[in-house]
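Shapes recur. One chain:

:::
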Amino acid sequence: MAGHSKWANIQHRKSRQDAKRGRLFTRLAREIAVAARMGGADPANNAQLRLAIEKARAQSLPKDNINRAINRGAAGGEGADLEEVTYEGYSAGGAAVLLRCLTDNRNRTVAEVRHAFSRYGGNLGADGAVAYLFSEVAVFSYEPGADEAAVIDAAIEAGAEDVVSEDDGALEVLADPRDFSNVLEALRGAALPPGNAEVTMRASMAAPLDARRSEQALKLLEHLQDLDDVQDVWTNADLQHVDGD
């Protein structure tokens, strides 16, 4: 499975900025509300809700916000008209792009998504065009300087599948998404809280892009992530010489 990417780094930095503006919290709360509406308000009997809550906690969404979102969703309020849709396509240079949306108007959403792809030299693909390249994985990230031996011991003891060391010293713990909560709690319990924890999609292979196409692809990815209906954006693009990264 492809390792850590520049796009993942940019997403994490952008998430921290979005959290300060409240945008990330709004998306997390919406995801919780939809999960509660679809499967009930009890996380013990609703795996989708349980994962949405853990994802929100990992991004420091306050407990009161989480509870309000659950109550709104379970009561049939927020999220009542939303449905989840997935779109697939290619950036300039042919890198795969996969995105997940929550929308109350498919026509509006697909028009916005198609416009973004066209604007930045990519194209929207058919269902199944790139999804087969991606697998769901739980990822726990550490900045350079973390105690690698301690992280490995705690992660493997908790049932993680792998620990990847990057060239700059950053670490990633990889686990089955079903073990997200257990591994996260074990790492926290060992006084090794990750800088970022999420269940995400990772591609089985990377698509290297030159500097010009990397710039186009980054603009596409950031534009897609800024769309109100878009919850997540994933890619296998290997971005080169991206300013600000």
Notes: The helical segments are 6-21, 23-39, 47-58, 63-74, 106-119, 148-158, 180-189, 211-226. The radius of gyration is 18 Å.
